[in-house]
Structures are given as structure tokens and as C-alpha cells.
Design brief:
- This protein is α/β, with parallel strands linked by helices and 688 residues long.
- It is built from 20 helices and 31 strands.
- The strands form seven sheets. The protein has a ten-stranded mixed beta sheet, sandwiched between helices. A nine-stranded mixed beta sheet has the order 21-20-19-22-25-24-28-27-26. The chain has a three-stranded mixed beta sheet with strand order 5-13-7.
- Helix 15 packs antiparallel against helix 17.
- It is elongated and about 95 Å long.
- InterPro entries: Nucl-diP-sugar_transferase (IPR005069), RAY1-like (IPR044575).
- GO terms for molecular function: glycosyltransferase activity.
- This is Nucleotide-diphospho-sugar transferase domain-containing protein.
């Protein structure tokens, strides 16, 4: 072994073979023996002359006011760096679409990722969409970060590394920028119109060179190969709300799939200091109290950072992170904790091994470079471990009334879902489907603490039932059980409460799959009409026969007749030993159907409410026409013109889930806590 090591030292000295490098999961660089034993990576050098395709991904706020101006300046600085750069903006805001239109194909808008009900994008969905792109290099960046040309040269260098990598770079905080970009976005000009060289700009910012790895604003880039960034699952962090950058870096280092290095010394990036209007933190012009109301988003990220991965138990040390530095025009990887410099692809570079000079070319210059990197004011360590909170209750600040005012549509209509923790995956599949249909006016009533916490972390508008039913079974809460009876009686009680607050309600069980938005059709029923699904399964005959009103899907208007009728239902259900559904029929259609009118209606004489049983071809239940047994359920329903399809008339949670997942009417990936999108690889994991 000694002879072999001596031979290797000789090869290094002659400069014919490039230095190998591997990283421990603990961030320690390998010893000489370990470099022999472990796989190596090399630098391909100038032999690969193709410019990599670079896509910069970001999630801007609406392009209004000073925030819009800062974002516009930043994006123009990105596009002016090189023609091989394209930009993808994650947003559903029309102002972002309008802004992107001015740049043609170089700037696109991607609305199909996951957002919270307040419009905050999910970081894990942004990363997944970036990974699904065809770019050679993906860059994730804050929308107000301005980039200078050394960004391109650094990425070009990293692209030639013969190994998968993850690059990070902290941004500088600039309080005043006395320059502006020309119309082409390629040259920076002084206030008097004279051009400022890139070198001069970098020199100016170097004089006030300070950053903090703990800040949310951090540039991340990686080569877009098949190797994942880290082991395990990226939790549903909210973008720009803390923890997520630090968490990814920590897991990437621990996983040892990629070289992880800090390029803060070779990438000049900065943002204008405007704490009052930080994009992704608050809306332009919002007050301090508004910002405090959104503290739950930061608390949620801290909660997730503690529950997922290893950050809560083992935190990487930034001071020992491999750093990329440019010395005398040449790139060097530096491990400051052990005084090691790794030159890749340059035979005349200096290599220090624990203080020993292996080559003396420009020795003083190299040592001076290392001293600059190790300067205390250039290395700011970061620790977030104390901020991680695994068991705190999340401070979700919304009451039912405040949620309704935020999410209701222009007709003051709310779509209401009620769920317990046993149905959280089905709830999310239902939510994802509504999101795909661009239906946002829904709220969730949580039957227990677990589903409430889950819904908050998933960005749902959720409220707690003030008098939740007890002893809700995880698997045995299906039709006919005592658990089912307790749960169903919550629905009419919550609907009545919302009606009294002045909002129309479409109550939908989470096992109802929506093919189209049914609200335009349901609005055709006027006041004092309750439109409900029929549970009748026979193909012919009346659909309003006794006990065939399905209380899992109905539309109720907020008018005096409907409110009075719902009060009758709630009162009847409170004294019944059965579920809510029989109370609906008996209270409104009369026991035995004494209030029936024709084949599809009932008339309640005390309140003057008409109950209309919906056409089953448009609103089929789970037993009608055997639709769930069709080889292609979706095609059969679309052909018939279904607006929804209810996954009822089946006993047991597992069987219900199996039927919906295997039919293809499933919109959620539980392993990643992410909605399935058109760009997503739809490989469903086990849900049961």
C-alpha cells in the first residue's frame, strides 16, 4: 500500500492525472487512502465546449409596486448574462403572465405546482418541477436576487465536473444600488449613463462582502442528472418561509450522492435590502399585523424540518463545507478546516495537503487566497437546530368567518369538505382535483387534531369542529357503523353554521370525484331549492323514494327557507340513533316520502323548501349503471357527461381507496405529499 501511495504522490507531482475527490456524509474530505478506495471524479476541462442549457426557476410575487420593480430588475439581469439561459416563474397571478410575455420564449410561467390557499408556493413542488425539466443545470433563486456574469463562468466550470453536484451561494444584502441596467439588460450604467464594467461592480460589492447562510435567500443549483439531491423525501416546505434551504443542504451532505460546495466566493449575487416588502414574505403594502398572521408558515417549516430527515438530530457544519474559490484566474476547491486545496484540471495549480506545499508555483498567491477564504468575516456559520419545533401546535390564525371571507367566490359560495385523519389521503386527492379544475373556494372542517395539523401543513383553509365526535375509528367508520353516524351529523351542523354567516354551501364528501365544476349548473336552481344527489341505484323509476337523498353531495343557498329547513334536519338528527342521511329525507321529504312531488322532488310545507334530486347521469352515485366496474371509469363517465362520481355504495375505507386509486381517479402522491401534475411521473405509491 505504501508503494502504491508513493506512486500516486508521484503522479500528482508530475501533473498528468487529475486529483480525485469524494465526500463523507459527515462533510469530512477523504484521507489519501480513502481517495484510493472510493470512486473519484475528474474535471473534464476545455474538451467539452458545449454551453450547458441553464434554466433559472423562481416564484415571484405579483408584479406591482416596488416589489415588482425589484423582481423585474433581477430577472432582466439573469437574461442578460447569456443566451442559453431561460427562466421559469412559478405563479398563478395574471401580472406574472403579463410580465413574462414581454420576453418571448425565454421566460415562461408554470402555474401547475402546489400552492397554499394564500398563494404561497410549495418548495418541494418547485424542486420536483425543476427536476422534471430538460435543462442541463437547474437554478433555484429568490426572485429579487441580481446576478453578475461570474455566475455563468462558475456554472460553466461546475458543468465540466465529471460528477453530480449541488452548488449553493449566499446573497449579499445591498442597501443602495446607484446603477441600472440598459434596455438590453446586458450592461450596468451609472446614474449619469456611463457604463460600469463587471469587474468594477464585483469590486464594489467585495468591499462590503457579508452574507448569512441562515437567511432564506440562497441560490441553489445542480446538474440535472438522474442522481437525486438527497435520500428520503423532501417535505412540503413553503418557499421563502425559512429552513428549507438549510434542510436540503444538510440532507445532501449526509446522503453523499453529490459533491456539495459553497460558491459564494465565485458568484456575485445580491438583493436590495427592503425588509418591509420582502417578496414571498408579505404582500406589497401589507401591515405588520398581516405579516404576523402568517407566522404560522414559518412555524410550519420549522415543524417539518424537525420531523423529516436528520437535521433535528445532526446538523452539518458550514465552516467545514467544501468551497469553490477563484485564485489568479483559476478555480480551486478549498477545505478550510483542514487547509486543503483541490485543483481540478490545472497542472500548475497549488495543492496544499495539511500545510505541505506539493507544488510551489505561485505559492504565496495560493496561500493568500486561502487566507481570504478563511477570514472570519467571510465564513459565517449557521445553526437552525434550536429553531426546529417538532411538537408545537401550529398557530393557524384563521377563524371560520375569516376563512370564508378569504376563499368565497364572487357569488359568496363555499365548497365544504369534512374529514378525519383516516381519510387524509382521500381529502388531498379531492383537494388536488379541485385545484386542477381551478376551484379555490373550498374549506375543510377537521374532525380531529391530526387532520387539522396535517391540513395546515398542506396549505389548506381549515377550521376545527368546535364539538367534534369522539372515538373516530381509522378503518371502521363506513356506512352503517356507529362512527359513521357520529361523523355524518357534523355535516349538517357545519352547513347550517355557514349558511347563517351568509354563504351558500356546496357540501361534498371527499370520496366524490369531480370531472367538471358543477357550480354553474347548480346555480340554475333558484332560492329555496336544495339540490341533492340521489342514492337510488335502479336504472328506471322514481329517484326520490324514501331514504334515497344522499347527504354527501348537495347545494344549499343562504336564504331564510333553506336555513329554516336545515335547522329541522339538524334537530331531527340530534335525536336520532341513525346517521344524518335518514334525517335529511324524513325531515324534508316526510317519513315514508309523504312530501314527494313527482319522481325527482320533495316539498317541505313548513319552510316552503323544495328538494330537487339531481339527474343521476350528471351526478351518479356509486351503484348507478355500474360505472365503477367499467374498464375505463373516466372514459365511461366523460362519455355520459358526468359532472361528478360518488365513490359510495362500497363498504370499508381500504376498499374505497383501492377502487379509486386503481380506477385512475386519483390526484395525489402521499409519499411526497404532492399533487400529481401533467409534468409529474405518475407512479403511485402505496396508500393503504
Amino acid at each position: 500500500m505504501k508503494a502504491f501511495q508513493a506512486g500516486l504522490w508521484s503522479i500528482w507531482l508530475s501533473g498528468f492525472i487529475l486529483v480525485g475527490l469524494s465526500l463523507y456524509a459527515t462533510q469530512r474530505l477523504p484521507s489519501l487512502k480513502e481517495q484510493i478506495d472510493k470512486p473519484k471524479f475528474n474535471y473534464r476541462g476545455s474538451g467539452d465546449s458545449c454551453s450547458p442549457k441553464i434554466t433559472i426557476f423562481s416564484a415571484p410575487s405579483p408584479f406591482t409596486g416596488s416589489t415588482g420593480a425589484r423582481q423585474g430588475l433581477a430577472i432582466r439581469s439573469w437574461l442578460g448574462l447569456a443566451p442559453n439561459i431561460t427562466v421559469m416563474l412559478f405563479s398563478q397571478d395574471p401580472s406574472v403572465v403579463s410580465f413574462a410575455g414581454a420576453f418571448g420564449s425565454r421566460v415562461s410561467v408554470e402555474p401547475n405546482i402546489d400552492f397554499t390557499f394564500l398563494g404561497t408556493p410549495f418548495f418541494h413542488s418547485m424542486v420536483a418541477r425543476s427536476r422534471a425539466s430538460t435543462s442541463d443545470i437547474c437554478v433555484l433563486i429568490d426572485p429579487e436576487t441580481i446576478l453578475l456574469p461570474d455566475f455563468i463562468s462558475t456554472l460553466n466550470y461546475a458543468h465540466k465536473l465529471d460528477h453530480d453536484w449541488l452548488l449553493i451561494a449566499s446573497q449579499q444584502n445591498v442597501s443602495y444600488l446607484p446603477f441600472h441596467l440598459d434596455e438590453a439588460g446586458k450592461h450596468w450604467l451609472r446614474e449619469d449613463g456611463k457604463e460600469v464594467t463587471t469587474h468594477k461592480l464585483q469590486e464594489i460589492f467585495t468591499q462590503t462582502w457579508q452574507w448569512n447562510h441562515c437567511e432564506c435567500r440562497m441560490l441553489m443549483a445542480w446538474n440535472n442528472g438522474d442522481v437525486p439531491l438527497h435520500t428520503g423525501v423532501l417535505p412540503p416546505f413553503l418557499f421563502g418561509k425559512g429552513v428549507h434551504n438549510h434542510w436540503v443542504i444538510n440532507e445532501a451532505i449526509s446522503s453523499d450522492y453529490r459533491i456539495v460546495f459553497d460558491a459564494s466566493w465565485t458568484i456575485s449575487s445580491f438583493y436590495l435590502n427592503d425588509l418591509q416588502h420582502w417578496s414571498n414574505g408579505s404582500v406589497e403594502g401589507s401591515s405588520v399585523s398581516d405579516f404576523q398572521k402568517r407566522s404560522w408558515e414559518y412555524e410550519g417549516n420549522s415543524h417539518l424540518g424537525a420531523l423529516y430527515g436528520s437535521l433535528f438530530f445532526h446538523e452539518a457544519n458550514y465552516s467545514s463545507l467544501l468551497k469553490l474559490f477563484k485564485c489568479d484566474g483559476q478555480y480551486l476547491f478549498v477545505h478550510t478546516a483542514e487547509n486543503i486545496v483541490y485543483p481540478f484540471g490545472y497542472h500548475n495549480s497549488v495543492c496544499l495537503w495539511k500545510g505541505e506545499i506539493l507544488q510551489s508555483w505561485r505559492k504565496k498567491k495560493a496561500l493568500a487566497c486561502v487566507d481570504v477564504i478563511k477570514s472570519p468575516d467571510k465564513i459565517l456559520d449557521c445553526s437552525l437546530k434550536d429553531q426546529l419545533k417538532p411538537s408545537i401546535p401550529l398557530p393557524f390564525p384563521f377563524s371560520l368567518a375569516s376563512l370564508l371571507s378569504v376563499v368565497a367566490d364572487k357569488n359568496k359560495t363555499i365548497v365544504l369538505a369534512i374529514a378525519g385523519n383516516s381519510y387524509k389521503d382521500m381529502l388531498m386527492s379531492w383537494v388536488c382535483r379541485l385545484r386542477r379544475l381551478q376551484i379555490t373556494n373550498f374549506v375543510v372542517c377537521a374532525l380531529d387534531h391530526d387532520i387539522y395539523q396535517f391540513s395546515v401543513l398542506q396549505g389548506l383553509p381549515v377550521f376545527k369542529d368546535p364539538s367534534p365526535p369522539q372515538d373516530i375509528s381509522f378503518n371502521d367508520c363506513h356506512f352503517g357503523t356507529k362512527c359513521f353516524q357520529r361523523v355524518t351529523k357534523v355535516k349538517s351542523r357545519m352547513v347550517l353554521q355557514i349558511l347563517k354567516l351568509g354563504y351558500n354551501v356546496l357540501l361534498s364528501d371527499v370520496d366524490v370525484y369531480w370531472f367538471k365544476n358543477p357550480l354553474p349548473f347548480l346555480y340554475s336552481f333558484g332560492p329555496s331549492v336544495l339540490a341533492a344527489q340521489s342514492d337510488e341505484f335502479n336504472k328506471t323509476g322514481p329517484i326520490n323514494i324514501p331514504r334515497r337523498l344522499n347527504s354527501g353531495f348537495y347545494f344549499a343557498r343562504s336564504d331564510g327557507f333553506t336555513i329554516a329547513a336545515m335547522e329541522k334536519v339538524v334537530k331531527h338528527a340530534a335525536t336520532s340513533n341513525l346517521s344524518e342521511q335518514p334525517s335529511f329525507y324524513d325531515a324534508l321529504c316526510g317519513e315514508g316520502g309523504s312530501n314527494r312531488v313527482g319522481d325527482n322532488r320533495c316539498f317541505e310545507p313548513e319552510t316552503n323548501l323544495t328538494v330537487h334530486f339531481l339527474d343521476r347521469n350528471l351526478f351518479p352515485n356509486g351503484a348507478y349503471l355500474g360505472l365503477w366496474e367499467e374498464k375505463n371509469v373516466k372514459a365511461a363517465c366523460v362519455k355520459r357527461g358526468c359532472l361528478i362520481l360518488h365513490n359510495n355504495w362500497i363498504s370499508g375505507r381500504r376498499k374505497k381507496l383501492e377502487r379509486q386509486v386503481f380506477s385512475g381517479l386519483w390526484e395525489y402522491e402521499s409519499s411526497t405529499r404532492m399533487c400529481l401534475h401533467s409534468w409529474h411521473n405518475k407512479k403511485l405509491t402505496t396508500y393503504l
